[in-house]
């Protein structure tokens, strides 16, 4: 996670269902700072940025101008108060090798956000024409990198000390089935003029609940271990240039990298046989009319 803003942000993290809210659910990230968040092999949840926060150093209690979660630094299972730009992700399941992620403006906007995968590959069954699909070896970019607050209609503006800090969605502002795509409008909901504005400024983000599913990005989870184990069986210990052949078989790996990975597998095996850890699963398996809008 990287903060490219000129001021501090306080990321909030909320796991779905029984999934954990990582790093206590929230922390401070100064301008230009970055941190690595360790995520379980299978995880689903949401991440958002909070801004304008102030917390007591002794109690970690305080408040944020946007995205506040009960006045706590570590949200601990509490969601952020909208409007807030959301990153939503499901990183693998026990039944699927696919990973999904998106940026959503359904609950409004407060900060520019983007999700840019490193490595991986897109869904082999996907025929996406998204201009961001070339990034991350095929995995598309989900984002709203523009400052939507600049374009926010006055009826949706959220201010703090006369400064625009957020922009409500039509659903958040009106709280009706027509704008939230619920009730009798669940399947027939069309984008409002506000949703169309959001879409024009941020085409790679969900602008309303029934938005085009193309903004939901799909990645195939890592299959490196499966390829590696196949290569080990193919090139046994008596094979000349064994490690060079294995590196070539798995692709884009050096001899040093595959040897290091082999050492890790041996260490895991030793831990399993000693009963210190459970067996790891190396095979990561598997539309409103304009006239309906209050101007």
TrEMBL record:
Domain called Myb-like: residue spans: 229-265
Keyword Nucleus: yes
Predominant place of localization: nucleus
Keyword Nucleus: yes
Keywords: Disulfide bond, Nucleus, Secreted, Transcription, Transcription regulation
UniProt subcellular location: Nucleus; Secreted
One cellular-component annotation, GO: nucleus
InterPro entries assigned to the protein according to its UniProt record, in alphabetical order: Homeodomain-like_sf, Osmotin/thaumatin-like_sf, SANT/Myb, Thaumatin
Pfam families (UniProt xref): Myb_DNA-binding_2 (PF23082), Thaumatin (PF00314)
Family note: Belongs to the thaumatin family.
Protein's name in the database: Myb-like domain-containing protein
């Amino acid at each position: 996670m990287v903060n490219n803003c000129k001021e501090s942000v306080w990321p909030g993290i909320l796991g779905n269902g029984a999934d954990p809210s990582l790093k206590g659910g929230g922390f401070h990230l100064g301008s230009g700072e970055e941190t690595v968040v360790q995520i379980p092999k299978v995880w689903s949840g949401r991440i958002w940025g909070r801004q304008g926060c102030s917390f007591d150093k002794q109690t970690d209690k305080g408040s944020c101008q946007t995205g506040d979660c009960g006045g706590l630094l570590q949200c601990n299972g509490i969601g952020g108060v909208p409007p807030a730009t959301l990153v939503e992700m499901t990183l693998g399941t026990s039944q699927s090798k696919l990973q999904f992620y998106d940026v959503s403006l359904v609950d409004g906007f407060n900060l520019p956000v983007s999700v840019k995968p490193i490595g991986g590959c897109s869904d082999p069954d996907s025929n996406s024409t998204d201009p961001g699909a070339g990034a991350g070896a095929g995995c598309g970019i989900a984002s709203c990198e523009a400052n939507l607050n600049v374009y926010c209609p006055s009826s949706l503006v959220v201010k703090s000390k006369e400064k625009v800090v957020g922009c409500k969605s039509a659903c958040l502002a009106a709280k009706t089935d027509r704008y939230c795509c619920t009730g009798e409008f669940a399947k027939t909901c069309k984008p409002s003029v506000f949703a169309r504005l959001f879409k024009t400024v941020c085409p790679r983000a969900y602008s309303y609940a029934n938005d085009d599913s193309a903004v939901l990005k799909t990645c195939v989870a890592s299959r490196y271990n499966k390829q590696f184990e196949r290569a080990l069986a193919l090139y046994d210990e008596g094979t000349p240039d064994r490690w060079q052949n294995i590196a070539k078989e798995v692709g884009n790996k050096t001899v040093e990298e595959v040897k290091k990975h082999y050492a890790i597998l041996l260490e895991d095996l030793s831990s399993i046989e000693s009963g210190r850890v459970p067996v790891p699963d190396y095979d990561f398996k598997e539309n409103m009319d304009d006239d309906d809008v209050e101007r």
